[in-house]
Structure to design on (527 residues):
């Protein structure tokens, strides 16, 4: 029972973090047609800004998280203007954007190292409260992750479903030319999508930085896992993405428990290759938003 | 008198391939014109240029005397030039209501949205019955009705219909043809592109035949029905 509870909780926490990452990635993929290789470094950037606000400005962690998310929203606007807009409508535009995001990853990781130094740091937990369940303990940040991921992804779902900008995002994703004929400006939609992706990545970064030490490359692993999530959940719906995230989280927790840390990624990526071969559209197919 | 919409010496293409080779046409207020001609000879490219989706290489497109060329599709739409693309694709995973809302959002006059929605539902009652249904689950005819409905919600002054009856069964075609004839009386001007020559000639005042990127024939729609040259276009003897 203890082992089951530990795997379940660990899997759900991991799934929550991956869900936050993968939702933004999925949205960018379905709307812009690009995989954002810079997503991991955006997570790291969110974490480092949150650390600065808590440790340098002495702000409470919740406020620091909000400020870090706001900063990353601004970064998202710059990211779209500098890395997406100049390339996306060119020939092989999607490829150019992907290469640009890959380049900016290396660049920003070096900048983080230069600005914040090589010391290992952590962002304080959102709350010191913890919960024990059948011998497994859930820390404050893990609790916040468990609640925040479905709430934030659910809120994003509602925005896409009901708001004018959400309808514009879906229209552009489904039929670009017709969307432009009804007056939708792709550039404005792209900014919105990139900002949302940055905000979700930043929040995941703040949560992760309370669970593990921060490094400029702290987003690399979650990014890789988020790609696996997209392979499992598909990019057709946020519901599928979130379900895929929990599935990967649980799979990772179970394989780590039973086979050890070294074997877990091997099995995970093996599973991804099998899924890509058998169901390239994702294991979970549903269309909700 | 200045034409409401005019196309002057328009050239356009894709890469090195030239599609339009000096198209000239005009549309006056209160008028409906038809574009005829074989597929792949430039009609859709012409419409894409008018709506701002494609940039021509030479020539001009003017609406009420002002050039549309520097404008984005959104700006062209806001001037009242609304193109209704062939409706087979639409927005398959959006409901009929959301699709119509999308069209309404393009209309700068917010107060007109409700009356326009009533007008669309009056013209196509099936859309009201299928409001909550996903566009991708509609029949071909219903999709086309929805595509026209989206265009009407945008509050057009000139409505451009691209192949509204393509691939539809005869009964549905008649239903749409009736709706298009009703629309004629309500709109300031109409451009109809369709492979059904009979429909185009009955629903318009004048016609242009576009072939190899040029206007090869133009005339009065009623008289045009007798044109041997046009008949040959559709019989393949071109």
């Amino acid at each position: 029972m203890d082992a089951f509870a530990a795997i379940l909780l660990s899997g759900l926490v991991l799934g929550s973090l991956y869900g936050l990452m993968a939702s933004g990635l999925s949205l960018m993929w379905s709307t812009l047609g690009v995989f954002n290789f810079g997503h991991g470094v955006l997570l790291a950037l969110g974490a480092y800004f949150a650390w600065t606000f808590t440790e340098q400005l002495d702000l409470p962690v919740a406020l620091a998280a909000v400020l870090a998310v706001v900063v990353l929203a601004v970064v998202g606007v710059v990211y779209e203007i500098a890395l997406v807009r100049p390339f996306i409508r060119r020939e092989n535009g999607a490829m150019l954007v992907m290469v640009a995001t890959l380049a900016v990853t290396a660049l920003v990781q070096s900048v983080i190292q230069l600005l914040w130094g090589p010391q290992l740091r952590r962002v304080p937990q959102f709350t010191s409260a913890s919960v024990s369940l059948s011998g497994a303990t859930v820390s404050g940040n893990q609790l916040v992750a468990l609640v925040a991921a479905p709430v934030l992804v659910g809120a994003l779902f509602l925005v896409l479903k009901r708001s004018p900008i959400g309808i514009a995002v879906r229209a552009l994703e489904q039929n670009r030319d017709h969307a432009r004929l009804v007056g939708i400006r792709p550039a404005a939609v792209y900014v919105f999508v990139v900002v949302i992706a940055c905000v979700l990545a930043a929040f995941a970064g703040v949560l992760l930085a309370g669970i593990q030490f921060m490094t400029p490359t702290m987003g690399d692993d979650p990014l890789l896992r988020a790609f696996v999530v997209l392979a499992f959940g598909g990019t057709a719906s946020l519901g599928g993405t979130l379900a895929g995230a929990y599935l990967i989280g649980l799979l990772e927790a179970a394989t780590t428990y039973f086979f050890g840390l070294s074997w877990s990624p091997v099995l995970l990526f093996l599973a991804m290759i099998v899924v890509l071969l058998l169901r390239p559209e994702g294991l979970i197919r549903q269309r909700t938003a | 008198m200045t034409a409401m919409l005019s196309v002057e010496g328009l050239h356009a293409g894709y890469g090195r391939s030239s599609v339009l080779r000096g198209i000239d046409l005009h549309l006056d207020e209160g008028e409906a014109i038809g574009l005829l001609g074989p597929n792949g000879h430039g009609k859709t490219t012409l419409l894409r240029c008018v709506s701002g989706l494609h940039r021509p290489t030479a020539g001009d497109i003017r609406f009420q005397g002002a050039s549309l060329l520097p404008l984005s599709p959104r700006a062209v739409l806001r001037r009242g030039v609304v193109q209704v693309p062939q409706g087979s694709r639409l927005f398959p995973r959006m409901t009929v209501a959301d699709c119509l809302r999308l069209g309404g959002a393009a209309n700068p006059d917010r107060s007109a949205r409700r009356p326009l929605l009533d007008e669309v539902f009056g013209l196509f009652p099936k859309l009201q019955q299928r409001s909550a249904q996903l566009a991708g689950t509609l029949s071909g005819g219903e999709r086309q009705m929805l595509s026209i409905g989206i265009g009407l919600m945008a509050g057009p002054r000139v409505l451009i219909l691209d192949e509204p009856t393509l691939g539809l069964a005869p009964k549905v075609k008649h239903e749409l043809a009736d709706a298009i004839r009703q629309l004629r009386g309500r709109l300031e001007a109409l451009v109809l592109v369709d492979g059904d020559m009979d429909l185009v000639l009955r629903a318009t005042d004048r016609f242009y035949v576009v072939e190899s990127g040029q206007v090869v024939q133009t005339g009065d729609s009623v008289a045009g029905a007798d044109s041997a040259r046009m008949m040959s276009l559709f019989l393949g003897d071109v």
Notes: Chain A touches chain B at residues 164, 167-168, 170-171, 174-175, 177-185, 287 (CB under 8 Å). The CA atoms of residues 169 and 196 of chain A lie 12 Å apart.
